[in-house]
Design goal:
267 residues, alpha+beta, Serine Threonine Protein Phosphatase 5, Tetratricopeptide repeat, 3 domains, 57% helix, 12% strand
Length: 267
Amino acid sequence: MLRLSRSTIRGLIKTGFVQPARGPKRQLLFSFQDLIVLRAARALLEAKISRRRINRSLEDLRRHLPEQMPLSGLSISAVGDRVVVRDGKNHFQVDDGQYVLGLDVSVENGVIRVVEHKEAVAESAPAETADDWFDKALALEDTDLRAAQAAYERAVELEPDYVGAWINLGRLLHSRHDEKKAEIVYRRGLQECGANPVLMFNLGVVLEDLGKIDDAIEAYQAALSEDPNMADGHFNLARLYEAQGKEQHAIRHLGQYRRLVSTSDSR
């Protein structure tokens, strides 16, 4: 029914889209909501939808699924980032986009039955979205860095709070040793997207390379205030504090780093 790789299923569990229980032999026990999300994920992956769109669609789907399977069954469709769930009484809708899947879910003799309906996409090509430009930029990074930069810039122009595009644009500039522009990009990204630990951490790395050590420490501290489990943030702070002779601060963050890495390795 699923035909999904183990790594994909593990990823969906890790992100919370799928929340199986454990059986007496530690086997995974999926609820009907889990099975529907997994089935929808497979259809979206087969339609070659970007990961960001898939995550947004699955988040909406999980949020709108009922706690129990209604007797009338469910009809689920995704149109780009929009997910529509119908049970004969309610109609939920979010976002806009292009038709990519349709699922009819029912229970027959205690077994969940899922039927997928394929529909033709309209011939007229939709306007290019921020996600389209982001995907182009990713593809161009291996062949044309300037074109990739322009594509990321177009993505944030269309969607100013597109945090992934700001992160990648700053990373691209930094990799080309344009630290000053990278700093500007990260700060602009924080203005548009709000506090984001990755933007803050990357800003700290750039500030280090610019020799702005106190500003870098402040950026790392801000990143950790948003994500205390960011191991690399603790490591970089420990290193900078040690260089400044602040041994107690360095020891504390190094201890946090080692604890987080040890926990991660034991999973």
